[in-house]
Design a protein that fits this description.
The structure is a homodimer. By secondary structure, chain A is mostly helical. Chain A folds into three domains: 133 residues, Alpha Horseshoe (MgtE N-terminal fold); 107 residues, CBS-domain; 156 residues, Orthogonal Bundle (Tetracycline Repressor, domain 2). Chain A has 24 helices and six strands. In chain A, the strands form two sheets. A three-stranded mixed beta sheet of chain A has the order 1-2-3. A three-stranded mixed beta sheet of chain A has the order 4-5-6. In chain A, a hairpin with a 5-residue loop joins strand 2 and strand 3. In chain A, helix 4 packs antiparallel against helix 5 and helix 7 packs across helix 9. Chains A and B meet through helix 1, helix 3, helix 12, helix 13 and helix 15 of A and helix 1, helix 3, helix 12, helix 13 and helix 15 of B.
């Protein structure tokens, strides 16, 4: 069996060849042989123009598979492909989606098309989607599926099995939820338990009552944390009256986890979550420029400090030589602290109780690393330039800057969290602003103080 | 129901109070009321000394729960707590683990203790662990569980159900694997399908033969990609003769995904994966110093360039003022590209076919953003200092540096991948070295060229 990546490389190469040659029949033969999830992965490697050809060929030949493929794509990418189609075609495709996948597409459609599409969909599916649209983005209500197995608690095992046989194929049905007659969630029975008990047993006698559940307004990150912590494959979603309204399955949780990890990483680097390597330059420039303009502002603080010390630099140009080094070391050490803080906050492992200890600890690490790195740098520069005072200035500047890095590397994510902002968002930028500025301030400040000995 | 984080904050506060007061009975009462996974999360918020108290109290009162809690911790953290115990106690705890969890602990134990512990464990469990130890780290073989349901293909549905009833509780049993008499994997039957077919049907008549499987030596990231792509809750692991040897369940996949996301983020920031906010300063300093010393070396390239242009700076100190700004902008833009490349390589969305287009695209973005940012900076500096040539130099330096950022931000992760190294590892460091250096080179080089007009 080929590695999944290699297999896709080959398929992508062939697809490109068929697209370029306009060989739509051969393209369809290739697509027919691939799993929907693989076609989705293949689309991710193609450019927009090529994607449109693939989707059109697919849609002409197999509408259901087209729906499967589109539901595996990132919603933004699926919308990109759908929005050129007629509303009736979009409706036809979306009603094949599970409700949680469909809502992610519908919310991205332009307002007028959205209404048309919802009106054109089958009534049941359209109602489900409209219901999910009421819940806020990134909550359990928005990502849950409204298709699940739930039976009344007095149901006998034999009838439960018959009900399962009569019901259609439901996405990842691993649990049977048990409710009272008003649909309040009371328990859960695994399919395995159904097999293990005599046909006449009532569900209420074999159900587990200690069901881990989330509310419709629970944040999706919190849902993911619960599924991960308790090793679940699905988690029921209830409203504030404990009525069962949906289920979030583990495959959606994996998407949430990947999405949040990407988000943290991108936000730390100042990249929009929806930016892609495959986008056109213009689109990516538009997405990245705002952050760069912001950086232009934050990065302008350090030049002000340097400007203040112009006369010192004129007298001792050697200080300018070491400016980039002192700034870089502070930024790098601060980034280490920020990465740790952001990740542990995301994984829910930092509380206000531990934050204070973390602060003292990271400051101690900053000073410790500062002494270790600063003394080496001090010694080297002393040997290179023969001026002990230069070594002292550089060593002290590094210690001060790494102290600042530890202090602010901890405080910035914590303050952002306290302000209910994302700790990843802009924290690296703010930190670099501070370490650049304090780096210049300590290096050039000390340089001015000891200028007499430097000349 | 309380938010999981708030609930833990309260439990942590109480646990701390009981530990400080030596109130072990009250501590045990608290622990008794918590799910094992919650105790594990609580331990993550405590410092090592406190953790040891909790584990001791737990072990005195409930050995099985101790095993459950320890299996939920990161292996390194569990080993930290276990290594002070007697080998017979460690063996007692580890034989309650599932084999894939136990092996992760055993591999971290000192060699002499490892042998003793394996000899002291129950024969069956000890053999399973020894078998898994043969497989390489971070492969399917290492993370798979050897406990799974597999039956011969001629088995009738009724007998399969009886077999399930007789078997003990197996971790997340959602599928029944179907094998021939030599244990070659031939198909899979979901528990739901068992319920839907008459008792006399043979498994071979209802099984799905197109089973997605991985090999024992498949990389764990690749296993995670397959589970995520095909929305599975478990994936069978076979040897190179297609004999079924184990199963990787989705809860382990979630751990892998979180682990790899942490790894990417930490490696980009130069943090060791095993570093923790809760560690002692000495421990964290030891973990972070190597990367900082390496950074001291890479960050020393820029000072060499500045040193070369000392005379220019003496003549036009204004250039030194803008050094931090030009360097910072290059670093920030390059980081944007690196974050995108690393993430898309991890998610398996960049192939050699798309890499070339990505390179041209990111270079175009670099130049485009460079023009947008450079011209603003040029204009501002012109208005501030009244020297058009200064504006021109700054604008050009930013354009050149952002071009370099786009070029190397794409190339560095690709080259690292080509060398079979982790694209995240050290890429930011290498990039900053380059943007700092080229930033100084272009700013001071242009400054020297137009020095006459600057004075």
């Amino acid at each position: 069996m080929l590695d999944i990546v290699t297999k896709l490389d080959i398929a992508t190469k062939s697809a490109r060849r068929f697209i370029d040659a306009g060989a739509h029949q051969r393209l369809w033969n290739l697509l027919k042989s691939l799993h929907s999830a693989d076609i989705a992965a293949l689309l991710n490697r193609l450019f927009l123009k090529e994607r449109k050809v693939v989707i059109n060929v697919l849609y002409e030949n197999d509408k259901e598979k087209t729906a499967e493929v589109l539901s595996e794509l990132e919603p933004e990418d699926a919308v990109e492909l759908l929005k050129d189609m007629q509303p009736q075609d979009i409706a036809l495709i979306l009603q094949e989606f599970s409700s949680d996948d469909a809502v992610q597409i519908v919310e991205f459609l332009p307002e007028d098309i959205k209404t048309q599409v919802l009106d054109l969909m089958r009534k049941k599916e359209s109602e489900d989607v409209r219901e999910l649209l009421h819940y806020e983005e990134k909550t359990a209500g928005r990502i849950m599926s409204t298709e699940y197995y739930a039976l009344e608690k007095n149901t006998r095992v034999a009838d439960a099995i018959t009900a399962l046989q009569l019901a259609g194929d439901i996405e990842s049905a691993f649990y049977l939820y048990v409710v009272d007659k008003d649909n309040h969630l009371e328990g859960v029975v695994s399919l395995r338990q159904l097999l293990l008990h005599p046909p006449n047993t009532q569900l209420k006698d074999i159900m587990t009552t200690d069901v881990i559940r989330v509310f419709t307004d629970t944040d999706q990150e919190e849902v993911a944390r619960q599924v991960a912590r308790y090793n679940l494959v699905a988690i029921p979603v209830v409203d504030h009256e404990n009525k069962l309204v949906g289920v979030v399955t583990v495959d959606d949780i994996i998407d949430v986890i990947n999405e949040e990890a990407t988000e943290d990483m991108y936000r730390m680097a100042g990249v929009d979550e929806s930016d892609r390597i495959q986008y056109s330059p213009i689109k990516s420039i538009k997405k990245r420029l705002p952050f760069l303009y912001l950086s232009l502002i934050t990065a302008s603080l350090a030049p002000f400090v340097v400007n203040f010390f112009k006369d010192t630099i004129k007298e001792a140009v050697i200080l300018a030589v070491f400016m980039p080094l002192v700034a870089a070391l502070g930024g790098i050490a601060g980034n280490q602290t920020i990465a740790l803080m952001v990740r542990e906050i995301t994984l829910g492992q930092v509380s206000w109780l531990t934050a204070r200890k973390a602060l003292f600890k990271e400051v101690a690490v900053g000073i410790g690393n500062g002494i270790a790195i600063g003394s080496v740098l001090g010694l080297i520069s002393y040997f290179l330039y023969g001026k002990p005072i230069l070594g002292l200035i550089l060593g002290l500047a590094v210690i001060i800057n790494l102290f600042i890095a530890g202090l602010l590397g901890t405080l910035i994510p914590l303050i952002l969290k306290f302000l209910r902002l994302d700790p990843a968002l802009g924290s690296v930028n703010l930190l670099t602003m501070c370490t650049d500025t304090f780096g210049m301030l300590s290096l050039l400040g000390l340089g001015t103080l000891f200028l007499h000995y430097l000349q």
